[in-house]
Amino acid sequence: MDSCRFDSFQRASKPNIDKLGRADRRWSYASWTAPSHHAFLMGLTPHASPTQVYASEVYKKDFVQWIDRLGVPNLSFGTFLPQLSLPKVLQDNGYRCIARVSMPVLNSFTVLNQHFDDYRLMDDHNQFDKIVEEMEFDDEQPRFYFLNLGETHYPYMLNGEQLPHISGLHGAVKTLAAGGGPLGTLTSVSDSFFDQAAMDALHDQQVRCVEYIDGLMGALFDKCPANTHVLVTADHGELFGEGGYFGHGPIMHEKCFEVPLIEGRVP
Fold first, then answer.
1. Alpha-carbon distance 11 to 171, whole Å?
2. pLDDT at residue 161 in the model
3. Residue 48 located in a structural domain
4. Is 178 contained in some domain?
5. Residue 162 located in a structural domain
6. Phi, psi of 230 (to 5 degrees)
7. d(CA 174, CA 159)
């Protein structure tokens, strides 16, 4: 869930995702989309930031967890060398690897496309419903689906709403405010930095987008084979006024790195 910070995830009502297990508070390896996804596709999940341990041991344990997720014995850091590519490891173990991404910085011309059998940038940010509709599973070959969902990325639009033309973030909020809609509580947005009322409304909208995604997760679970292992996380967090910041990327603030991680067998 692109840009979904931990407390947005925790605030949301998400009965389907909660069936996977307990959500952990984790930390992203980067504060924006592209490098975070490089880490994911190396086989790394957001880390727990443990103390009194050697960093190299944290990496080793992260790679070894793929043994339990996949049911494939003897996986280790060495298995991922030299490419350091999760899709390559999965292909070597008979998986068909499929990606659906919502962010242009993850388009199919980037190196992230390497080792995928089917990799596509969606037409706009908010097409998780279309992704779920198109997903298929094959009894003859296991599948790895990597999904980057844009609903939780600004401007936090829900399915069926018309995405505004955005010339900077102020343009997004002004357009939403002028048209009522999901930010109808806002009556005006000045050319100055967002006030806290605008920040709070945007944060609330991200929570609603998590709830929207959760509704579609129920439909996804219904399509998944019983032995499907599901990971739900975020590539980075988001700032809604804390420390004078909005958004993510060139920001050094813990809320920009704080993300959820929940995983388990499909319910």
1. 27
2. 53
3. yes
4. yes
5. yes
6. -115, 135
7. 20
- Of the candidates 42, 46, 3, 40, the residue with the CA atom closest to the CA atom of residue 24: 46
Neighbours of 121 (CB within 10 A): 19
Question: What is the widest separation between alpha-carbon atoms in the chain?
Answer: 59
Cα 166 to Cα 125, 173, 224, 230: the distances in Å are 13, 9, 36, 33
Q: Does residue 169 register a pLDDT over 60?
A: no
- Domain of 141: which CATH number? 3.40.720
> In this predicted model, which residue has the larger pLDDT, 25 or 166?
25
Write down the pLDDT at residue 138.
87
Query: Is residue 1, in this structure, part of any structural domain at all?
Result: no
CA 135, 67, 149 angle in degrees (round to 5)? 35
User: pLDDT class for 196, splitting at 50, 70, 90?
Assistant: confident
- pLDDT for 192 equals 66
The boundaries of the domain holding residue 92 are: 6-265
Q: Count of domains in the chain? A: 1
Contacts of 173 (CB under 8 A, 6+ apart): 155, 183, 186, 189, 194, 198, 202
Distance CA(71)–CA(91), nearest Å, equals 15
